[in-house]
Amino acid sequence: GRVLALRADALDPQAIISGGGLGSAPGAYFDALVLAVNAGLWDAPARVLPIRQAGFGPDAGIIGAACAATTRQEPADRPPST
Fold first, then answer.
1. How much is the pTM?
2. DSSP string, 14-34
3. C-alpha–C-alpha distance, residues 42 and 55, integer Å
4. Which residues of 44-78 are buried (b: 16+ CB within 10 A; e: fewer)?
5. What are the pLDDT digits (tens) for 10-62?
């Protein structure tokens, strides 16, 4: 939570989206994360940063891997083919 609060202070986002296994799991972990982020913000009393759970939940990694596997990627060290 403290690390996310520091990044939020530096980048000033409108919201934080939390994903992955723990980040998308409802319950005590996510609730503690929200409290820690909002407590660590520099301007905490005047600002509550929305923290949302990612839409794909704990399956986000699997879905991302499947998307990457079906998308042709060119290596960075050579120009794209035509």
1. 0.64
2. S-EEE-HHHHT--SHHHHHHH
3. 28
4. eeeeebebebeeeeeebeeeeeeeeeeeeeeeeee
5. 998 989 988 777 777 778 888 998 999 988 898 866 677 899 888 887 777 78
The amino acid present at 49, given as its one-letter code, is L
DSSP helix/strand/coil, 51: strand
- The CA distance from 66 to 82, in Å, is 25
51 neighbors 34 (Cβ within 8 angstroms): yes
Cα–Cα distance measured from residue 28 to residue 14, given in angstroms and rounded to the nearest whole number: 24
Residues 6+ apart with CB under 8 A from 35: 1
The first and second tokens of residue 57, run together, are 């939940």
Distance (Å, whole) CA 24 – CA 38: 18
